[in-house]
Every structure is written in C-alpha cells, then in structure tokens.
Amino acid sequence: MARSNLWNAVAALAAALVVMTLLSMSIPRQYINTRVNQCAARLKCIGLATIQHDVGRAHLPGYIEDFGTYSGDGSDRTDPANHGVPRHKKLGTWAVALLPWLDAQPTYEHWTQDRYPVATISTALGKLDEASGTGLHPLAAPNLAIFQCPSNPVIRGNFGKNSMVYNNGLARSPNQPLVGISHNINDGVGNSKYNVTKINPATGEGTHSSEGPNIGLDDFTDGKNCTILFSENIQALPWHRAGLIHSVDLIMEAPHQKDVKFNLNMPQAFAAQYTQGMVWHYEDAEAANPKLSHRWNKLGTTAPVTPKNVAPVHRINGCLNGDKNSLFNLRIDDAVTATDYARPSSAHNTGVNVVFADGSTRFINETIDYRVYQELMTPCGKKSSIPFRQTILSAEFRK
C-alpha cells in the first residue's frame, strides 16, 4: 500500500510539472505573438506614411535630408537656458521626413522651422548620450513608440529610440569601388539627399554632387508587393540622428556659409545609409561557382564582376561567426560595423517583420535565399546591380 501511494504521488507530481511547463510555455508564446503583431502594425503605419509622402511630395524620402538651417538669434523658444546657440544645418533622416504622417507634427516643425534649433548647449530638457548624438536637442529626438518594436530591446540611445530601418539598397563599401560608383534607383528605395563636397569661400554655397535621384512608387517595376520598404533591426541607431553625427558636425562657422562640408570617402553623415537602414551586398552564395563566371552582373563594365561570398553577418538575423547568441551583443561603433549590421534583425523567433511598398506586412524567414532577399530589396531586379539577375521570385512573393 505504501509503495502504491508513493507511485501515485510521483505520478501526480509529474503530471503537475507537465501542466506547469505547458502553461509556462504557452503564456510567453501568446505574448510574443501579440508583440509580433504589434510590431507589424507599427511597420504598416510607417509604410503607409511613406506612401502618403510619395503621394504628397511625388517621391520617397532619402536616408539623409536637409531640413533647413537654424539661423535665429542664438536663443531657443523651447528652452530659455539654451542661449548662444550657433547657426547650424538641420540634417535628419527618413524618419524626420515621415513625422507629419505619423502624428508627430510638432516634432516635425522643430526640424523645419528656422526659429527652432536641433542643437543645444542646455541640459534643462535632458541630455542625449553618445549614441543619440551629443549636443542634439531632446525636443528634436523624442522617444516615439511607432519607431520601436515591442519585442526588440532598443540597446542604443537614450533619446530617439529606434528599431526600424529603411531599404537603402546596395551597400557602398569603400573596399568595393565598382559597386558604389553611382546611385541606381533600381538598387533600393532610400538615397542620399545631401552631399556637399566643397564650399565656395566667396558665396558660401556648397557643391552638391553624388546625390541620389528621386525615386517614387511608380518606378517599382517589380511590383509594390514585391519590394520591401522597412524592416526591423536590433542594432539600429536613434531615428533622428543622421548617421554618426553630433551637433558639432552641423555648425556653420562662417556667417555667410550655407552648407556643411563632408568627407567623400566615408563621411559621418552618410553612415545614415546603415545606421537607420538595411542594405544588400554584392555577394552571392555561389560566388565560387566557375559555371557562373560569365553570368555575373557587369556593373557597367565590359566584363562580369565576380561577387564575394555571402558573409553570415549580412543575412537576416546575421551574427558574427554564425553565433546566434551574439545577436543582442553587436554594437554599431563606426561606419564599418554599421555597414555589416545594416540588415533585418529582430527578437522574434526565426525571422523578421517587413512592410512592402503596397502597405502589406509579412514575416520573412531568416533562412531566405540571399538572392531572393536581393530581389525583394530591389524595385527592378532586371536593371539592378545584383550579381545574378536571372532570379525569379517564388510564388509566395508574387501574389
């Protein structure tokens, strides 16, 4: 009898443990699914705002744009302690351009009205840390829920927290000069809208060169439902900060100066292509296949240009050395690391949410073929710079 009671007790305990395990597994799973849906809903809002931008402005936002100049008297109407503010250029990102359609008009006016600075020497309203851009204004960089995935722990920045990234096309690596020689509107969505190479000392005017041409939704010949606009990225830097700039980079010291001069090689501001963006690289999983040597993209040259092999970190949820546990430990510290980490990544299991140019959202598996990823990132794959342009999207992406 004692042995029977003991076995009954053990069986009851085991059953209880099974039930508790199932319950502990089911509750977080439901919560995670809810957060995945919330993330998709926020991406959809950003996608619809981008569509409205295209309708209203006849083109899509750039990954860096000029929103005017603070040319006031050095005072700040929003913070009396912020006096003696120098003249400075207001360089922002795609996110700033979308603010009017995301119920953030007051923040947008802070960027676009000349009387408001986006730089501050005061700490009365808060102080931005290194990742958010030292010396930038708290009122120009509020924490907006729309730019944050509920599942993604935003790991960089105390203001302007962000986990959403724009389709900024082909990575322009200084190690691959043939790949980044020009802006091809068929390579992605976001382009640079501010590129000043030198300043005329007499007039203060800047020489704008290598700025990307306007691209609109009507240019998407592959179909709006086959071109990604936005995804999520754990490593993304704050939404307001153009690349790796700080307020000191925006100051125009000469009284008549009208532009800010940047370095052409890898300027801090142009890193915005990667810090709040996702890109694709001129890489292919069959780069070493001799049978394909004559079929690679010529990139405007006379001979096919052989791609590199796909780096694991460049794939969706890509990590260093394939170590998935390192995903949340990666940090953008400079333009080089920014280039590597500019890919979709998330805290969701097995993949990421994306929003397409028709406003639809989908969950993309992290095991997707890199050629398919390149096709989904390019508005016109046949005219793009992707290495292997013969790829045809599978039926699931052509509905």
Evaluate the radius of gyration.
24 Å
Q: Structurally, how many domains make up the residues?
A: 1
**What is the chains' assembly state?**
single chain
> Could you estimate the helical fraction of the residues in percent?
10-25%
Determine the strand fraction and express it as a percent band: 5-15%
The strand count comes to 9
| C-alpha end-to-end distance | 66 Å
Q: pLDDT under 50 segments (min length 5)?
A: 13-32, 174-182
Mean pLDDT: 87
Which strand order do you get reading across the main beta sheet?
7-3-6-8-9
SSE order, one letter for each helix or strand: HEEHHEEEEHEHEEH
Secondary-structure class: alpha+beta
DSSP helical segment count: 6
Largest β-sheet summary? 5 strands, mixed
Shape: globular
Task: Describe this structure as you would to a colleague.
The chain has one domain. Strand 8 and strand 9 form a beta hairpin. It has 6 helices and 9 strands; from the N terminus they run αββααββββαβαββα. The protein is globular. The longest helix is centred in the first third of the chain and has 56 residues. It is of the alpha+beta class and 399 residues long.
Set down the secondary structure blueprint.
Elements: H1 2-57, E1 65-70, E2 88-92, H2 94-98, H3 105-112, E3 164-170, E4 196-199, E5 206-208, E6 228-232, H4 272-275, E7 277-280, H5 335-341, E8 351-356, E9 361-365, H6 370-377
Parallel strand pairs: 3-7
Antiparallel strand pairs: 1-2, 3-6, 4-5, 6-8, 8-9
